[in-house]
Write a structure and sequence with these properties.
56% of the residues lie in helices and 0% in strands. By secondary structure, it is mainly α.
Length: 113
């Protein structure tokens, strides 16, 4: 489970393109350190910690990308040089709902663990 409650992959057709013009971060990449080499000792632990941190960053970037795309598509009809008050309020509410929902789900899973 990602930092914001899940992953963005999972389309039924198996392809990760969701119609966005932005580049998707990650998209089902596997751990490049799983080649079976024995890294041994503390150095292996440091590398594993760095890999885990980079994976968390990747999950976070995926969630931010998903949030931006979802809220933009929902709130902004025709892009112009500035956002209307309605669009700005909609974007703020969308982000707030996303964060609240993510925290609720994350806290619930933490209680179950």
């Amino acid at each position: 489970m990602g930092l914001f409650g899940g992953t963005v992959e999972g389309s039924s057709s198996g392809d990760s393109y969701s119609g966005s013009k932005l580049r998707s971060y990650g998209g089902g990449e596997t751990d490049s350190f799983s080649s079976g080499q024995d890294l041994g000792g503390a150095a292996g632990g440091d590398i594993q910690a760095q890999v885990a941190m980079e994976q968390q960053k990747l999950q976070f970037m995926n969630q931010v990308h998903h949030l931006n795309e979802t809220c933009w598509d929902l709130c902004v009809g025709n892009p112009s040089s500035s956002l209307s008050g309605r669009e700005e309020t909609c974007l703020n509410n969308c982000v707030d709902r996303f964060i609240d929902t993510t925290l609720l789900i994350t806290n619930r899973f933490a209680q179950l663990a």
